[in-house]
TrEMBL record:
Pfam families: Lipase3_N, Lipase_3
GO molecular function: hydrolase activity
Ranges for domain Mono-/di-acylglycerol lipase N-terminal: 7-71
InterPro entries documented for this protein: AB_hydrolase_fold, Fungal_lipase-type, Mono/diacylglycerol_lipase_N
Alphabetical GO biological process terms: lipid catabolic process
Residue segments, region Disordered: 404-475
Protein name per UniProt: Fungal lipase-like domain-containing protein
Species this protein is from: Acer yangbiense
Keyword set includes Hydrolase: yes
Length: 475
């Protein structure tokens, strides 16, 4: 009797401790140790959010859903606008915008449409460890969407780059589901910059707003100098958990979302199922998560907009924290009634603009009486050092496939092409229709098939290759 009472007390205390940690954990705890962002590096985020919002408009000359202050863009600079009818379910709607004021070529992709079946097909077209790419794992459906986008718009992006003096920055951006497509699109372009007119890596940028989990941790850290993710407070994690669940759970979700009769039972089972998925994910140890190379993460450098704190009611003036996290990359579940609104692009744009104004006011007040605390050149050096430190930390934590790129290796565009590369390039071009680049064939260069026909990382095959026997010593 006493033993059973003791076991019950231990269970009650353990559950109470877990509930206390869950209920008192707030979004600001994820970035408590991060440094504050500067106005210069955070400046593009609100502007990019407005460009993503512009994708929702059918006529930018007569906008219907413009945010406070308007879109602040020139409708005549919109090169192309693509709707669901034109993408045929291969990608969410997007626009291509030529921003002459900031010297940028922007491809902006909208987020998940809750009533579009094609978006759910794209979202659920994955299973854990299905797609290997560039020395890691990525989301299969989002990668296919990114390749389709490059096949459709690669020549347009290349033409805009060349026509504007090969000097504009090429920006890929998206919200929620679109952020995952944009991030993988940027990774492909960085690996094949010569296909878009030789754009240098420093001229490629990706801004993922409320990012989706789309790449493994080694890739998320590797491309942190290119991809920048913006997150408001808690952000919803349910969308990010959908492609990490089992086949049985996926089939149940598919019936719930795409059923023609959305009864009460379907809506009752959905929150319960997603809660159990998140609950299961909470009890996975951090070390086990880091050792799993298939696990997907939010990409790149993080910008965390914090506006609520523990035991403080209401919203407060937002502050922006930034880092390239390796451990605890927004892996905790935050119980909050604002989780849905924190994921919305409208709220993110509003709070990002407010945070930018506060950063500018703080910076201007400092420079009136004293020199700025962080000079621009010093900040650039700090950002580069943070990226190198994150890569080194990934190595020290034994994260699979993590590697520090060689500094003395010339960039892809500046390296001397070998005869094999020339043959591959001519072969790709000859097989492409109309002399344009076939991005399906280009991306396949980062894959290699094993004997069973499955795609595997090329470095893995080289590691698994048998070591040749040493030559016999001469007699």
């Amino acid at each position: 009797m006493s033993v059973s009472c003791g076991v019950e007390c231990v269970l009650i205390l353990g559950f109470s401790r877990w509930m206390w940690k869950r209920c008192t954990y707030v979004g600001s705890d994820d970035s408590a140790s991060w440094s504050n962002a500067t106005p210069e590096e955070f400046e593009p985020i609100p502007r990019i959010c407005r460009l993503i919002l512009a994708v929702y408009e059918s006529d930018l000359h007569n906008p219907q859903y413009q945010p406070s202050g308007g879109y602040r863009l020139n409708p005549d600079w919109v090169v192309k606008r693509v709707t669901y009818e034109q993408t045929l379910g291969h990608a969410p709607p997007y626009i291509i915008y030529l921003d002459h004021d900031h010297r940028e070529i922007v491809l902006a992709i909208r987020g998940l449409n809750l009533i579009k079946e094609s978006d759910y097909k794209l979202l659920l077209d994955n299973r854990l460890g299905r797609q290997m790419f560039d020395g890691g794992y990525v989301h299969h459906g989002l990668l296919k969407s990114a390749i389709w986008l490059l096949n459709e718009e690669g020549e347009t992006l290349k033409r805009l780059w060349v026509e504007n003096g090969s000097d504009y920055t090429m920006v890929f951006t998206g919200h929620s589901l679109g952020s995952g497509v944009a991030a993988l699109l940027a990774v492909i372009v960085v690996n094949h910059r010569d296909r878009l007119g030789g754009v240098p890596r420093s001229k490629v940028r990706c801004y993922a707003v409320a990012p989706a989990r789309c790449m493994s941790l080694n890739l998320a850290v590797k491309y942190a100098d290119v991809i920048h993710s913006a997150i408001l407070q808690c952000r919803i994690r349910i969308i990010n958990e959908l492609w990490m669940i089992s086949c049985q759970e996926r089939q149940l979700l598919w019936k719930i979302f795409l059923s023609h009769s959305f009864g009460l039972d379907a809506f009752d089972s959905l929150p319960c199922l997603l809660f159990l998925v998140c609950l299961r994910d909470t009890f996975i140890p951090e070390g086990r998560k880091l050792r799993d190379p298939r696990r997907l993460y939010a990409p790149g450098r993080m910008y965390h907009i914090v506006e609520r704190k523990f035991c403080r009611c209401g919203r407060f003036p937002p502050e922006v924290r930034t880092a390239i996290p390796v451990e605890g990359r927004f892996e905790h579940i935050v119980l909050s009634c604002n989780a849905t609104s924190d994921h919305g692009i409208i709220w993110i744009e509003r709070e990002a603009e407010k945070a930018l104004q506060m950063l500018r006011e703080s910076s201007s007040s400092e420079t009136i009486t004293t020199p700025p605390k962080v000079q621009k050149l010093e900040r650039l050096k700090t950002i580069e050092k943070e990226h190198k430190d994150a890569l080194q930390k990934a190595l020290s934590l034994n994260i699979p496939h993590a590697a520090v790129p060689a500094e003395d290796k010339p960039p892809q565009d500046e390296a001397e092409p070998s005869q094999c590369d020339n043959e591959d390039a001519s072969k790709t071009k000859s097989q492409s229709s109309g002399g344009t680049t076939n991005w399906d064939q280009v991306v396949e260069k980062l894959f290699k098939k094993n004997e069973s026909g499955d795609l595997v990382v090329q470095s893995d095959i080289e590691d698994e290759a048998p070591t040749p026997a040493p030559a016999p010593a001469p007699s």
